[in-house]
Amino acid sequence: HSILILNGPNLNLLGTRQPEVYGPTTLADIEALCAAKAAELGVELTFMQSNHEGAMIDALHAARGVHAGVILNAGAYTHTSVALMDAISSTMLPVVELHLSNIHAREEFRHKSFIAPVAVGQICGFGAAGYPLALDALVSYLGDPQ
Ligand code: DQA
């Protein structure tokens, strides 16, 4: 399997961005964690970050036929983007929704996710450790390659 990990706006600032909420781990650290987990699971990984909604939609379209599934931390677009939701429905790619923080325990505007109804499932609240958890979850969802 080949898996895309797509990170949205402001996640490039992890490490310095509100460490009390998101922890001290940088996005490069997270990428390294994911690479180690992917090697253990025997899957290929593409790791991306964009601050632009349209670029994220383009990445989902481009993932069709290339990646077996997607781990998506859409950042604040989670709570606003009908366009990202539609991109997931349109591509029919299996998506695991991921957040470092527990969005349900935070401000009310973070409780609503446009991704959740079109995702296989959601992992949130485990900080950087959620990424390898999401890889485990997606690979087990995908099952053995044909
Ligand atoms: C986030 C949660 C979102 O509410 C927030 O806008 C982010 C990060 C998380 O990983 O906890 O940018 O997706």
How would you portray this structure in words?
This protein is an alpha/beta fold and 146 residues long. The protein has a single domain, classed as Rossmann fold (3-Layer(aba) Sandwich). Helix content is 36%, strand content 18%. The protein has helices spanning 19-22, 27-41, 53-63, 82-91, 130-142, and strands at 2-7, 44-49, 69-73, 95-99, 121-124. The protein has a 5-stranded parallel beta sheet with strand order 2-1-3-4-5, with helices on both faces. The chain binds 1,3,4-trihydroxy-5-OXO-cyclohexanecarboxylic acid (DQA). 1,3,4-trihydroxy-5-OXO-cyclohexanecarboxylic acid binds next to loops.
Could you provide a short overview of the structure?
Catalyzes a trans-dehydration via an enolate intermediate. The chain has five helices and five strands; from the N terminus they run βααβαβαββα. With 146 residues, it is an alpha/beta fold.
- Please, how many helices? 5
Helix content: 25-40%
CATH class: Alpha Beta
Q: C-alpha Rg, in Å?
A: 14 Å
CATH superfamily caption: Dehydroquinase, class II
Number of strands: 5
CATH architecture identity: 3-Layer(aba) Sandwich
Low-confidence stretches: none
How many domains make up the 3D coordinates?
1
Structural class: alpha/beta
Bound molecules: 1,3,4-trihydroxy-5-OXO-cyclohexanecarboxylic acid
Return the average pLDDT rounded to an integer.
96
What is the CATH topology classification name? Rossmann fold
Largest sheet, strands/sense/barrel: 5 strands, parallel
Share in β-strands? 15-25%
How far is the N terminus from the C terminus? Answer: 10 Å
Order of helices and strands: EHHEHEHEEH
Strand order of the largest sheet: 2-1-3-4-5
* Global outline: globular
Enzyme class: lyase
GO molecular function: 3-dehydroquinate dehydratase activity
Family: Belongs to the type-II 3-dehydroquinase family.
Binding site for substrate: 73, 79, 86, 100-101, 110
